[in-house]
Amino acid sequence: MTKYNKNQIISALMSSGKSHVGRKDDPVMQYLLNHSLREHPALKKLRQKTMEHKLSMIMVACEQSQFMANLASLIKVKKAIEIGVYTGYNALSIALTLPADGKLIACDVSEEYINIGRPFWRLVRATHERFNYVPIYARFWPYFMKCIFTVNVLWSGRVVNPEEGDIDSISIDKLNKKLHRDVRIQLSMLTVGDGLTLAFKI
Q: Which SUPFAM superfamilies does the protein's record reference (predicted)?
């Protein structure tokens, strides 16, 4: 994974569209949150706990997570997998939309981050069956199912002209181009949070 110096990280954060990072003092963003965000108490507590962590800026924006959860509810998702979980805010958000017999698997490589979220995950259950919804952090190549929500596709703008050696930005740019060329899917890329792509198999 590419290493960034402090100035690069600060610059990226300031250009982020996430409500809890670059836009937390934006009155329009605060209006949006005050008039649309409906957080379950466990989600709110997990978000607040995550905000204490040094890497809280990588958490999915709460408004972005709610949007994905609403879409998952709209298409009546019963089984989901999340790859790249961090503390599990988005995984819990999706789990709360699933029916009583719904299943969710949350996958991450870091026990440290997952352990932050574990106390809040009582509603999350796992299965090894087929899935019809996959939220994917754009650093990860998609395991294509019926529907994919890919977050962080704008990567604080660094995907526009990825620098040589910036593996994350280059990988995300390749994923964006791959999805755009794939004629099997319907596609929308939105500027929600740090970029959100919706891809549905036709």
A: S-adenosyl-L-methionine-dependent methyltransferases
Rounded Cα gap, residues 46 and 127, in angstroms: 23
Neighbours of 22 (CB within 10 A): 18
Instruction: Give per-10-residue mean pLDDT for the chain (202 aa).
Output: 51 55 72 87 92 89 92 90 90 90 87 89 50 54 66 88 92 92 89 88 74
Q: How far apart are CA 52 and CA 67, in angstroms?
A: 24
Contact between residue 135 and residue 183 where contact means Cβ atoms under 8 Å apart:
no
Q: What is the CATH number of domain 23-201?
A: 3.40.50.150
Q: 64 with 192: CB under 8 angstroms?
A: yes
Residue with tokens 């110096």: 5
| Domain boundaries of the chain, sorted by first residue | 23-201
Residue 79 CB contacts under 8 Å (≥ 6 apart), including other chains: 102, 103, 104, 127, 129, 130, 131, 132, 133
Task: Quote the pTM value.
Answer: 0.71
